[in-house]
């Protein structure tokens, strides 16, 4: 096999790698009915069964039109034909494979070789380079609306960079059906970038990059029609006071998404480190590859626009609160420059490996990807080393590769990455290196064995333990696979109560709707996205778990502690208002009501009206 063949194997070998990445990442801790699925899954089950929890406040208010309505309808319609758990599982696998495959193709397009694309797919699937605002999510190992439409979002961005406005907007419009906010915002940015490039930078473009202005006009009209389809129903709903809306959504429920002053300083440092690495990679990419000017400018402009939108998200949410900016949630859009940056960084590392497969800088850059704080160090030190040597020779030793390695190592020791991140990154990179530097038979054997083991683990629910005996991977494909005290409580409730009974539960019991199949008064996780229901949700939260203040990093703990201290007098008052029959209390909470079931942490009491 020639050197060129080793560096650029046939495309179907790369697809095998990408398919393995999608399956492996999905299997790594896959869980059904947890995380944000606590919010979406009740809506889906209501589509499947219109009688599901007919007396549950959250399920009722979200069964009508809302931003996640079409997502619930889509999953629900499929689940009427196939088992819900497997619909969700296979859609998760498919979207992760598509995300990895599109990343591979995009990386190959930018760097003109398979190695860059394959490493980009490994990094995007295996590493979370930063998490400022906790919403810049490109892939997950459980299905949510944002990841379901991620292939469409990425294709829309790629089409915009290729100056294909109509294709870009149509893809973003399709994404908006499932996730209106992300689809419309991505489409708007794509229209803006293409229009700006074609109108103001037309003289710099090559013949292949120039397009007719009527295509931009048509794409703009399509965007306006799609936007109107979603914004008109939003505008005609009954609105609450804007300041109350901002307080409930941004300050009380989601400060970790909306309020920059509550973000962790380490996240800011990691984000800065990533953008330094991405900017250097962008510059090196231009020097080494000489890409079309529209692509280089497009990536830069999209990243700058998103950063300015995030600054607006601080100014017009935290300082001068605006309903429009709050609704926009600009920090979610960081996934756009995040994807570009990960692909560019991966591509530059791949070029280093192509030039010299023993490149110390390339492997050091791979190791630095383990934590956001270290990502920017190797490229930054490598870039300024020449300048330091020229102007400050006395300190040049601190910018040598050995010193860089020492600094990266110290930071990794101080800010240790999770074991799962280490395993995932090195497994993916190992497969990547095997693909490009070892015989193809070896690669096929490894990927085949890997897929086989993943299937066995998933089918038989085999737990994987690390060196310390801790379980790191337990495939939870259906509700019956979930374990723990909350599941025990839910099982007892399901088997010993009527389907129309309502439960008052701790604030973190949203999963109870799914596992017990019983209505609850309210929970903290699942909140409606429309004004009046959001107001009602807040009232219920304060009634049951208050008092509480917004912008509180310990809010969930405070709500839980308030519920631990609840007394019978308050329970009686709440029962008169919300008409529940049972209460799930913490075991230490004192009460005169009869205890029907108890674990170490929780107990179920029956609200006997004769008692009071």
Average pLDDT reading:
88
Largest sheet: 5 strands, mixed
Number of domains: 2
The beta-strand count equals 7
The level of helicity is 55-70%
End-to-end Cα distance, whole Å, is 85 Å
Estimate what percentage of residues fall within beta strands.
under 5%
Q: How many H/I helical runs? A: 29
Instruction: List low-pLDDT spans.
Output: 1-7, 466-472
Radius of gyration in whole Å, from Cα?
26 Å
Descriptive overview:
Strand 3, helix 26 and strand 4 (519-520) form a beta-alpha-beta unit. The protein is globular and about 80 Å long. It has helices at 3-7, 11-27, 37-48, 57-62, 69-79, 84-111, 114-126, 145-148, 150-161, 165-178, 180-200, 213-236, 242-253, 255-258, 265-289, 293-319, 323-328, 335-355, 360-368, 372-375, 377-391, 401-414, 419-437, 440-459, 485-495, 512-515, 531-545, 555-564, 568-578, and strands at residues 464-465, 471-473, 502-504, 519-520, 582-586, 595-598, 602-606. The protein has two domains: 16-355, no CATH class; 485-611, no CATH class. By secondary structure, the chain is mostly helical. Strands 4-3-5-7-6 form a five-stranded mixed beta sheet, covered by helices on one side. Residues 1-7 and 466-472 have low confidence and may be disordered.
């Amino acid at each position: 096999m020639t050197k060129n063949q080793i560096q650029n194997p046939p495309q179907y070998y790369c697809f095998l790698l990408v398919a393995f990445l999608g399956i492996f990442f999905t299997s790594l801790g896959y869980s059904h009915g947890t995380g944000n699925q606590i919010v979406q899954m009740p809506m889906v089950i209501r589509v499947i069964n219109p009688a599901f929890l007919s007396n549950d406040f959250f399920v009722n208010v979200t069964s009508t039109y809302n931003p996640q309505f079409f997502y619930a309808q889509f999953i629900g319609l499929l689940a009427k034909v196939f088992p819900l758990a497997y619909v969700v599982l296979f859609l998760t696998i498919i979207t992760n494979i598509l995300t990895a495959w599109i990343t591979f193709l995009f990386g190959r397009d930018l760097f003109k070789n398979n190695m860059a694309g394959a490493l980009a797919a490994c990094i995007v699937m295996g590493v979370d380079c930063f998490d400022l605002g906790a919403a810049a999510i490109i892939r997950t190992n459980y299905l949510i609306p944002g990841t379901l439409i991620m292939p469409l979002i990425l294709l829309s961005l790629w089409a915009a960079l290729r100056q294909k406005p109509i294709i870009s907007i149509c893809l973003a419009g399709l994404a908006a059906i499932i996730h209106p906010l992300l689809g419309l915002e991505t489409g708007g940015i794509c229209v803006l970038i293409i229009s700006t490039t074609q109108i103001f930078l037309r003289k710099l473009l090559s013949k292949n990059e120039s397009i007719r202005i009527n295509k931009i006009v048509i794409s703009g009209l399509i965007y306006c029609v799609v936007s109107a389809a979603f914004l008109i129903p939003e505008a005609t709903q009954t609105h609450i006071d804007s300041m109350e809306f901002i307080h409930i959504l941004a300050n009380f429920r989601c400060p970790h998404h909306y309020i920059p002053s509550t973000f962790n300083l380490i996240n800011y440092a990691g984000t800065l480190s990533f953008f330094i690495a991405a900017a250097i990679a962008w510059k090196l990419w231009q020097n080494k590859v000489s890409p079309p000017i529209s692509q280089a400018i497009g990536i830069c402009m999209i990243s700058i626009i998103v950063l300015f939108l995030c600054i607006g998200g601080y100014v017009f949410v935290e300082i001068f609160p605006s309903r429009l900016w709050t609704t926009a949630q600009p920090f979610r859009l960081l996934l756009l420059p995040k994807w570009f940056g990960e692909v560019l960084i991966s591509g530059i590392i791949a070029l280093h490996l192509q030039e010299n497969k023993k490149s110390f800088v390339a492997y050091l850059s791979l190791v630095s990807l383990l934590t956001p704080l270290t990502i920017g160090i190797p490229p930054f030190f490598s870039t300024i080393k020449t300048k330091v040597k020229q102007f400050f020779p006395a300190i040049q030793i601190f910018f040598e590769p050995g010193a860089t390695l020492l600094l990266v190592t110290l930071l990794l020791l101080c800010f240790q990455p999770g074991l799962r991140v280490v395993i995932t990154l090195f497994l993916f990179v190992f497969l990547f290196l095997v693909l490009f530097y070892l015989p193809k038979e070896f690669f096929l054997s490894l990927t085949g064995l890997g897929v086989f083991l993943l299937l066995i683990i998933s089918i038989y629910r085999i737990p994987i333990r690390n060196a310390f005996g801790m379980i790191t991977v337990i495939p939870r494909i259906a509700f019956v696979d979930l374990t723990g005290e909350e599941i025990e409580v839910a099982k007892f409730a399901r088997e010993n109560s009527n389907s129309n009974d309502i439960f008052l539960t701790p604030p973190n019991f949203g999963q109870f709707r799914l596992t017990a199949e019983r209505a609850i008064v309210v929970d903290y996780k699942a909140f409606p996205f429309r004004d009046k229901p959001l107001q009602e949700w807040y009232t219920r939260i304060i009634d049951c778990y208050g008092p509480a203040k917004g912008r509180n990093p310990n809010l969930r703990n405070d709500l839980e502690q308030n519920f631990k201290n609840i007394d019978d007098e308050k329970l009686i008052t709440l029962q008169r208002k919300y008409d529940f029959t049972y209460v799930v209390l913490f075991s230490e909470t004192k009460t005169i009501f009869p205890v029907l079931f108890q674990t170490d942490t929780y107990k179920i009491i029956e609200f006997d009206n004769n008692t009071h």
